[in-house]
Q: What sequence folds into this?
Protein backbone atom coordinates (compact mmCIF):
# COMPACT_ATOMS: atom_id res chain seq x y z
CA UNK A 1 0.00 0.00 0.00
CA UNK A 2 1.45 3.32 -1.04
CA UNK A 3 1.18 6.56 0.89
CA UNK A 4 -1.36 7.99 -1.51
CA UNK A 5 -3.59 4.96 -1.17
CA UNK A 6 -3.34 5.12 2.63
CA UNK A 7 -4.33 8.79 2.71
CA UNK A 8 -7.21 8.15 0.32
CA UNK A 9 -8.44 5.24 2.42
CA UNK A 10 -8.13 7.26 5.64
CA UNK A 11 -10.07 10.16 4.10
CA UNK A 12 -12.82 7.81 2.91
CA UNK A 13 -13.09 6.22 6.35
CA UNK A 14 -13.20 9.68 7.93
CA UNK A 15 -16.00 10.70 5.57
CA UNK A 16 -17.95 7.60 6.59
CA UNK A 17 -17.57 8.38 10.28
CA UNK A 18 -18.51 12.01 9.68
CA UNK A 19 -21.70 10.99 7.87
CA UNK A 20 -22.69 8.67 10.73
CA UNK A 21 -21.95 11.41 13.28
CA UNK A 22 -23.97 13.90 11.23
CA UNK A 23 -26.99 11.57 11.23
CA UNK A 24 -26.77 11.12 14.99
CA UNK A 25 -26.54 14.86 15.56
CA UNK A 26 -29.52 15.49 13.29
CA UNK A 27 -31.50 13.08 15.47
CA UNK A 28 -30.43 15.12 18.52
CA UNK A 29 -31.43 18.32 16.73
CA UNK A 30 -34.91 16.99 16.05
CA UNK A 31 -35.45 15.35 19.45
CA UNK A 32 -33.63 17.93 21.57
CA UNK A 33 -35.70 18.68 24.66
CA UNK A 34 -34.75 22.35 24.89
CA UNK A 35 -33.24 25.21 22.92
CA UNK A 36 -29.75 24.73 24.39
CA UNK A 37 -29.55 21.19 23.04
CA UNK A 38 -30.62 22.36 19.61
CA UNK A 39 -28.04 25.16 19.59
CA UNK A 40 -25.33 22.68 20.58
CA UNK A 41 -26.52 20.30 17.83
CA UNK A 42 -26.31 23.08 15.24
CA UNK A 43 -22.81 23.95 16.41
CA UNK A 44 -21.80 20.30 16.15
CA UNK A 45 -23.27 20.07 12.64
CA UNK A 46 -21.16 23.09 11.68
CA UNK A 47 -18.03 21.44 13.09
CA UNK A 48 -18.77 18.17 11.33
CA UNK A 49 -19.35 19.98 8.05
CA UNK A 50 -15.92 21.60 8.39
CA UNK A 51 -14.41 18.15 8.89
CA UNK A 52 -16.35 16.87 5.89
CA UNK A 53 -15.03 19.71 3.72
CA UNK A 54 -11.47 19.11 4.96
CA UNK A 55 -11.70 15.39 4.14
CA UNK A 56 -13.07 16.25 0.70
CA UNK A 57 -10.12 18.62 0.21
CA UNK A 58 -7.72 15.78 1.02
CA UNK A 59 -9.49 13.43 -1.39
CA UNK A 60 -9.69 15.88 -4.28
CA UNK A 61 -6.46 17.78 -3.68
CA UNK A 62 -8.34 21.05 -4.21
CA UNK A 63 -6.93 23.41 -1.58
CA UNK A 64 -9.63 26.06 -2.02
CA UNK A 65 -11.90 23.84 0.08
CA UNK A 66 -9.76 24.69 3.12
CA UNK A 67 -10.51 28.39 2.62
CA UNK A 68 -14.20 27.59 2.40
CA UNK A 69 -13.97 25.58 5.63
CA UNK A 70 -12.30 28.52 7.38
CA UNK A 71 -15.06 30.88 6.22
CA UNK A 72 -17.73 28.47 7.44
CA UNK A 73 -15.94 28.20 10.79
CA UNK A 74 -15.97 31.99 11.19
CA UNK A 75 -19.67 32.25 10.33
CA UNK A 76 -20.48 29.31 12.59
CA UNK A 77 -18.59 30.85 15.50
CA UNK A 78 -20.44 34.14 15.11
CA UNK A 79 -23.80 32.42 14.84
CA UNK A 80 -23.09 30.38 17.97
CA UNK A 81 -22.23 33.55 19.87
CA UNK A 82 -25.40 35.25 18.62
CA UNK A 83 -27.60 32.29 19.60
CA UNK A 84 -25.97 32.08 23.03
CA UNK A 85 -26.58 35.78 23.63
CA UNK A 86 -30.20 35.32 22.57
CA UNK A 87 -30.55 32.39 24.95
CA UNK A 88 -29.05 34.40 27.82
CA UNK A 89 -31.28 37.36 27.01
CA UNK A 90 -34.43 35.28 27.01
CA UNK A 91 -33.39 33.62 30.29
CA UNK A 92 -32.87 37.05 31.86
CA UNK A 93 -36.36 38.14 30.80
CA UNK A 94 -37.89 35.06 32.39
CA UNK A 95 -36.09 35.75 35.68
CA UNK A 96 -37.43 39.30 35.81
CA UNK A 97 -41.02 38.07 35.62
A:
Amino acid sequence: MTGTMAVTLAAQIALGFLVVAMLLVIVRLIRGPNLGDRILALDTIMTLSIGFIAAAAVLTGFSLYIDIAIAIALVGFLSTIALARYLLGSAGKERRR
